[in-house]
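Sat 14:20. Reprocessing the chain from the morning session after the first attempt stalled halfway. Input below, unchanged.
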Amino acid sequence: MLPLRLPWLWLGAGWLVVAAVCAGSLLPPASMPWLRGLLRADFGEELLHAGAYFVLMIWFAGLCQRRLYGVVAVLLVALGAALDFLQLGIPSRSFDPLDIAANALGIGVGLCAALWLIGGWCQRIERRLFA
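Finished this time. Tokens:
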């Protein structure tokens, strides 16, 4: 992890996003009526998956050293695949390989963005806040 003044805050917020993604992946769709509009659009669900995993990749790239970005990406792909396989045991959910592909796409785009532009963003924010 990068040297940060508020690591517990950044890490805690990141784990809240992970918990939200897990809940969104495993809870019955009826418990999330606000998602219905998003999911009606063509490829809405895949865009939601890609966006969620893009955010996760960017978030944790903000906390980690550049050399760990690949590890973060692999762990996030594993999380997405595991959550999709867990859906096999949930009556209101179904396994969909396109979801895993969308997750991986979001992670890949997030990884590229982190490598080229915004990796380590937490340190830059802290420098501005605590300068």
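The mean pLDDT is 92.
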